[in-house]
Write a structure and sequence with these properties.
single chain, elongated, mainly alpha
Length: 65
Amino acid sequence: MRVFEKRVPGRIFGPKKNEIKSQLKRLDNAELYALYSSPNIFPVIKSRRMRWVGHVERIGTRRGV
């Protein structure tokens, strides 16, 4: 599970473009932590799932399902 926690912020924030060399650079753990500022991603995932459930529920009522 820790591997997942380390991989997800890298996917979310993606590589950053180096303005000087015009190349993409993967962010290291310290840079990701500075951007994300939360070592535990589980509360964020849970809140996004709950937001998605609400979205799906609203779509169902509009479509008459």
